[in-house]
Structure to design on (1012 residues):
């Protein structure tokens, strides 16, 4: 029987036209095995679809996976829509192909952590356990 | 109940989606606070038509739900969806994928979709599915659709929640007889053969018809068998019509009263059962007693029946929560 | 058939194990308990004649250019001509990519290979809301014939061959190419090249589908038919294992799924009434070359043998050209690391070597900045040089199938062939490739293998230099390509202009004619060509077809 404790719920979202899903699925599976509830959006989601899913599912973490290079256009929009929905306190993290130069501006937007190629999934699990509230 | 929860309820009753979502999370925690909240908003429920969608894994439940949403929205009705997927019994984790099929309604704020992990419940739903449905009801959704886990057999809990149960099957499933034996057939009010574009839909139709014929009641609701192709939407408006006819029938025949009674009875049972079990596994004192009794049975100092009686007596003696 | 000599060897091997090996193992055990390939295939300590006891030279290997083509599809292989060095390239606007092509041709590259940006790949125009942020980023932005004319300006389309990595809208892009050639005065019978046009692996691996499988297969058979008559030098499908492998499959899965897809296309063509020898010779393949050199070489050899046999025995093809499995290779992008990017040059070299030892017909080598962005010119040049060094300096191209006859290679080749047939059986039981796709079979196999690979890295069962061992804290020191935001403005402006200056009434008429053809059974290609000649855009053509065919929904598999 589950305890009264809050289960960690993570939205794994694929914004834009990017169809690379190997990483997102590997991460989703690892998070599931770590005991989290993972809601996968499927491919090619608009910022609005992602923000609305985050709201309705009341997730603890929004995880954005993007390898297509469109992050500098899509992430700000997603952050704006999350904010509009009063979800400023949701932990937003990202992974995929994100060049060094973009990391700072993305963090400034409120994306708390960015995990690039080669990141062990255990590190992502640890990060979420420590930082999700 | 905390100030926060009170505020959430107030916001929910004004139609706030974020508040609804947060109350659902609270409900899933199954805590006393959650139950207090449900008590508060219960008077605001009872208006929605609750539809269950069940059937084998991959039979197209989510795809059909997506099309049902479209139809109901076209009628101007607001829709809530609860989609349950299985949680791992080992890690408690879950991959919830039903939502993928229903993403296109993101900008329609009259549609609210919530995914749930079954979290240890076995009947095709989660323990808190009732409560999430209540919250959608209180949020003012006209139609609430509940998609079950889709494990196949034994998913009969849906009749504890839904007024109308849509039971999906697909052509070419080898386990027809299995399904019939498992008694799952009895729960359907509307039968849908989905994937009617595939070979074998007619055979499936005949099989279903025969199975239904076997326990056809002389009067009352005659469950229709419909063919649909959820991917293209073909046949879906007939499904909607059948759902509505069933609802009309319940009201006109007065059977709605029995239907409700059955559901409330089952819900009550579940709540009682669950609060007992919860106590045994969560409250330290009861947990200790439980462990001790298990030990005693193990050492053959007592038998399971006596142990259970002692536990129940102990729980009854306790007052309040 | 065990000859006396061979049984002697197996006896001798047992003695070696008993007398010599055992002592050493007692003193110093081996590095690991289990030795596995990149695909988690266990590898034995030693291979010997006993491991190829059943090999029949004539039946299983033959001579280059002869059935079953295990040793190579041509009699002289690289002694006649090196493989085609074909670097996949495309970014920004058509002007920018055109400049890169002309540079690459000057550098000795021998064929072109177009990378399109994601909107084109998805059959969307640059001004579609979904294209936000994607314009020219993952490839070159092509919306209409207007862009295509610029892309190939000053490149004579009767002289170069062009490969286009395009699938769901492949027919549209082929028509753009035909129309662009016409503008150069080159007729469709003179052009040569390849469209990937392999929709089955989209559902399985690359995930850039548009329409459901059945109409997609029809578009493909329409293309086969059209090209057989009108574009005879065109390779109509590049049956691709690359994407399957990069999505996470093992080498055998890549081999088996790709060949199964190929057989499904041949069957579709035959079922549509085409004669197998009329279109099969224009089918080509595209494989991945990963790091495990021997396993990769065995895979290429097995592929040739299986294909020849299936075309001969299953489809009764008569023309030897139908038996030939000709293939392009790309080195494994997924093996390249963001960490210590210069190391990627070495990884790519090993993979390129495997492709050449495996007898590839053309090759793309990835650049060291693979895990950061599209390649810079410098990085792409080094990758091209890698091929040139292999070709001219290493001597590996001097003889044909140099690894043939190796106990290890022959045994692996047989093993992979057997496993491939096991997969064929499973796929048949599921009702064929399309049915297995709908059931999520390939997707599940691939996802499982990808997850296992990740676990093996995290559990250090495999070492990846710079990632889970030999780690340094150095920051990236190589330059990374950036797409100028100007690209988006230029592209949107050109698209607006195209829409303004063309004959819109005619475009609408041609698009509704196309829809009629799509609703019926007529070949759609002539209608697509007519529309794009009038500058109908890729998004407009695909939307017209979306209205008729609907869009695909994938089964949910993790
Ligand atoms: C595999 C691959 C493919 C496969 C994809 C298969 C699939 N279904 O996923 C195939 C061959 C089909 C493919 C195709 C294309 N690709 Co590709 N591909 C790659 C490649 C080589 C590896 C990506 C990968 O899967 N790695 C393995 C996984 C496990 O790692 P990962 O995704 O990075 O995920 C890890 C972390 O990033 C992080 N992470 C990822 N997501 C998330 C999410 C969260 C929440 C968190 C916390 C962490 C996290 O954790 C993961 C575990 O460590 C990269 C280059 C590279 N080496 O990275 C290029 C790359 C991404 N591709 C690229 C391109 C351009 C394309 C194409 C557009 C080419 C074209 N024009 O035709 C197509 C389009 C495909 C599409 N579907 O959209 C470019 C993108 C360029 C850019 N961003 O500027 C890259 C960078 C290569 C390059 N340098 O040119 N590709
Ligand atoms: N051919 C055909 N395929 C369909 C039809 N309806 C759904 N599908 C496909 O069947 C697969 C499963 O559909 P879902 O809607 O996810 O099925 P589900 O019952 O919700 O699945 P679970 O929730 O995983 O049990 C998808 O690939 C759908 O596209 C149909 O009418 N015809
Ligand atoms: Mg479902």
């Amino acid at each position: 029987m589950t305890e009264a404790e809050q289960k960690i719920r993570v939205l794994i979202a694929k914004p834009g036209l990017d169809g690379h899903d190997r990483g997102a699925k590997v991460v989703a599976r690892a998070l599931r095995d770590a005991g989290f509830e993972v809601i996968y959006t499927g491919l090619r989601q608009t910022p609005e679809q992602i923000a609305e899913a985050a709201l309705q599912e009341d997730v603890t973490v929004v995880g954005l996976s993007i390898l297509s290079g469109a992050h500098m256009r899509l992430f700000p929009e997603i952050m704006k829509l999350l904010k509009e929905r009063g979800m400023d306190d949701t932990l937003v993290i990202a992974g995929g192909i994100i060049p060094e130069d973009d990391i700072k501006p993305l963090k400034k937007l409120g994306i708390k952590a960015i995990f690039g190629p080669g990141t062990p999934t255990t590190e992502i699990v640890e990060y979420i356990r420590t930082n999700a509230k | 109940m905390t100030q926060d929860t009170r505020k959430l309820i107030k916001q929910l009753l004004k139609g706030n989606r974020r508040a609804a979502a947060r109350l659902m999370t609270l409900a899933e925690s199954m805590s006393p606070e959650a139950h207090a909240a449900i008590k508060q908003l219960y008077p605001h429920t009872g208006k929605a038509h609750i539809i269950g969608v069940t059937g084998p894994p991959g039979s197209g439940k989510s795809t059909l739900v997506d099309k049902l949403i479209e139809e109901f929205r076209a009628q101007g009705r607001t829709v809530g969806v609860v989609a349950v997927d299985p949680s791992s019994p080992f890690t408690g984790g879950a991959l919830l994928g039903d939502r993928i099929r229903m993403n296109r309604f993101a900008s329609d704020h009259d549609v609210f979709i919530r995914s749930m992990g079954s979290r240890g419940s076995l009947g095709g739903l989660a323990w808190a599915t009732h409560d999430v449905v209540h919250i959608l009801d209180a949020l003012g959704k006209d139609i609430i659709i509940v998609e079950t886990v889709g494990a196949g057999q034994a998913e009969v809990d849906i009749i504890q929640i839904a007024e109308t149960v849509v039971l999906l099957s697909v052509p070419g499933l080898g386990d027809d007889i299995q399904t019939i034996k498992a008694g799952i057939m009895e729960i359907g009010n509307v039968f849908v053969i989905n994937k009617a574009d595939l070979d074998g839909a007619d055979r499936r139709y005949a099989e279903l018809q025969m199975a239904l014929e076997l326990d056809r009641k002389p009067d009352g609701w005659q469950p229709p068998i419909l063919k649909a192709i959820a991917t293209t939407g073909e046949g879906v408006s007939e499904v909607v019509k059948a759902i509505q006819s069933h609802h009309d029938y319940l009201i006109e025949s007065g059977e709605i009263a029995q239907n409700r009674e059955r559901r409330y009875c089952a819900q009550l049972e579940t709540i009682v059962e669950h609060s007992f079990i919860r106590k045994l596994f969560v409250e330290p004192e009861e947990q200790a007693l439980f462990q001790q009794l298990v030990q005693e049975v193990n050492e053959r100092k007592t038998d399971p029946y006596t142990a259970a009686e002692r536990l129940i007596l102990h729980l009854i003696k306790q007052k309040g929560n | 058939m065990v000859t006396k000599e061979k049984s002697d060897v197996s006896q001798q091997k047992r003695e070696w194990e008993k007398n010599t090996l055992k002592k050493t193992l007692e003193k110093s055990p081996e590095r690991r308990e289990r030795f596995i390939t990149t695909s988690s295939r266990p590898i034995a300590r030693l291979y010997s004649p006993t491991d190829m006891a059943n090999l029949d030279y004539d039946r299983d290997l033959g001579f280059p250019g002869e059935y079953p083509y295990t040793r190579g599809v041509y009699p002289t292989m690289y002694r006649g001509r090196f493989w085609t060095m074909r670097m996949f390239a495309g970014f920004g606007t058509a002007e920018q990519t055109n400049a890169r092509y002309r540079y690459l041709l000057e550098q000795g590259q021998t064929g072109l290979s177009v990378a399109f940006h994601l909107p084109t790949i998805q059959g969307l125009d640059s001004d579609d809301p979904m294209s936000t942020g994607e314009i020219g980023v993952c490839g070159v932005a092509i919306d209409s014939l207007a862009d295509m004319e610029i892309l190939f300006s000053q490149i004579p389309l009767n002289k170069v061959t062009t490969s286009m990595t395009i699938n769901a809208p492949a027919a549209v892009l082929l028509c753009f190419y035909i129309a662009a050639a016409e503008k150069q005065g080159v007729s469709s019978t003179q052009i040569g090249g390849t469209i990937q046009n392999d929709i089955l692996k989209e559902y399985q691996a690359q995930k850039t589908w548009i329409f459901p499988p059945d109409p997609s297969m029809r578009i493909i058979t329409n293309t086969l038919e059209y090209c057989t008559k009108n574009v005879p030098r065109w390779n109509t499908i590049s049956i691709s294992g690359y994407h399957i492998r990069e999505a996470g499959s093992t080498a055998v899965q890549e081999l088996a799924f790709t060949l199964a897809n190929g057989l499904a296309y041949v069957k579709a063509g035959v079922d549509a009434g085409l004669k197998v020898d009329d279109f099969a010779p224009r089918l080509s393949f595209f494989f991945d070359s990963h790091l495990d050199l021997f396993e990769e070489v065995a895979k290429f050899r097995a592929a040739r043998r299986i294909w020849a046999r299936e075309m001969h025995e299953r489809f009764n093809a008569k023309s030897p050209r139908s038996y030939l499995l000709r293939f392009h290779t790309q080195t494994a992008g997924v093996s390249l690391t963001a960490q210590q990017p210069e190391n990627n040059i070495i990884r790519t070299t090993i993979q390129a070597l495997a492709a050449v030892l495996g007898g590839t017909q053309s090759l793309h080598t990835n650049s060291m900045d693979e895990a950061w962005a599209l390649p810079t010119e410098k990085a792409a040049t080094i990758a091209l040089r890698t091929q040139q060094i292999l070709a001219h300096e290493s001597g590996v191209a001097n003889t044909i199938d140099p690894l043939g006859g190796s106990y290890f290679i022959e045994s692996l080749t047989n093993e992979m062939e057997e496993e491939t047939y096991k997969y064929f059986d499973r796929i048949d039981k599921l009702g064929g490739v399309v049915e297995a796709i709908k059931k999520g079979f390939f997707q599940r196999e691939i996802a499982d293998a990808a997850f296992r690979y990740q676990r093996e890295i995290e559990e250090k069962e495999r070492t990846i230099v710079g990632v889970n061992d030999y780690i340094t804290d150095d920051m990236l020191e190589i330059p990374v390509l950036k797409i100028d935001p100007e690209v988006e403005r230029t592209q949107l402006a050109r698209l607006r202009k195209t829409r303004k200056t063309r004959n819109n009434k005619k475009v609408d008429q041609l698009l509704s004619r196309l829809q009629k053809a799509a609703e019926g059974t007529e070949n759609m290609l002539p209608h697509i060509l007519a529309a794009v000649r009038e500058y109908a855009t890729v998004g407009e053509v695909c939307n017209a077809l979306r209205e008729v065919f609907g869009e695909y929904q994938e089964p949910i598999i993790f």
About this structure: The radius of gyration of chain C is 24 Å.
